[in-house]
Every structure is written in structure tokens, then in C-alpha cells.
Amino acid sequence: MEDKRNFPRLGEIWDLAYRPISSEEAKEELLRGTTVDISSGGIRFESDEEIPEGTILAIELEAPVFPSPIIAVGKAVWCSRQEKKDKYEVGIEFQWMGWQDLDVQQALTEYITDHNL
Questions:
Q1: What one-character-per-residue DSSP string does 70-103 give?
Q2: Please, which residues have CB within 8 angstroms of residue 48's CB and are 6 or more apart in sequence?
Q3: Which of 86, 99, 7, 3 is nearest to 44 (CA)?
Q4: 109 near 101, Cβ under 8 Å?
Q5: Cβ distance 55 to 47 under 8 Å?
Q6: Which domain holds residue 57?
């Protein structure tokens, strides 16, 4: 089967905090999850909460390989209930990402490419 993804993915588990920022779904408290895989174009993560398609999220990724958290804004492109785990898997497409260094997306892309061999 042909892989139609635009970006290579890396199956690493990183902690993340997120909160919806779409007007109808906005919440004050941070929610927590863990990544299933990550690319420079988006992430797939596990959540206790269902996240409707189209929801915009503020995300903070705790990547042990980087000196500071990666912050991002992303859009939920799908959400699927995982019955066996009693969780949801969520697919997020990054709209913006950064940290104190503006080269975060390039650094993340290089890390994923180097470790995806």
C-alpha cells in the first residue's frame, strides 16, 4: 500500500498539554495526552476527551530531545474512539509551531528524518 503522507512520521511517545481555542469549544484548563506519532506537519495523540473535527487547539509538546517545549496551534482533522483503551485518537494538522527559536519546524523535521531511517 502506498503511503500518501506528505511528511515522514516518527512513533515516539511525548507528553502534551492542549486546550481547544475554537470559540464553541474554548476551555480554560489544560487537558493532557500523549503522542502516538509525530511529523513536522502534525501529530496523532491519545486523549480522554473527544475532539470534534475542525476544533483548533493550542498545544504544548514536551519533547525530551529538545531543550524547551514545542508550542503549536493545530486543527483536528479526525477523532476516533479506541474502545480497548477507553480513549480517543486524534489527528492534528499543524497550523503554526514554534518556541523561543523560530527554526523549530526545521529542527523537528531534521530530527524526524534522522530517526525515521
A1: EEEEEEEEEEEEETTTTEEEEEEEEEEEE-SSTT
A2: 31, 33, 87, 88
A3: 7
A4: no
A5: no
A6: 15-102
CB 44 within 8 A of CB 36: yes
Determine the pLDDT at residue 78: 96
Instruction: Of 10, 7, 2, 4, give the one whose Cα is nearest residue 117.
Output: 10
Instruction: Report residue 75 as a C-alpha cell.
Output: 486543527
For residue 10, pLDDT over 80 is answered with: no
CATH of the domain at 81: 2.40.10.220
Given the C-alpha cell 500518501, which residue does it identify?
A: 4
The reply to whether 63 falls in a domain is yes
Of residues 87 and 100, more confidently modeled: 87
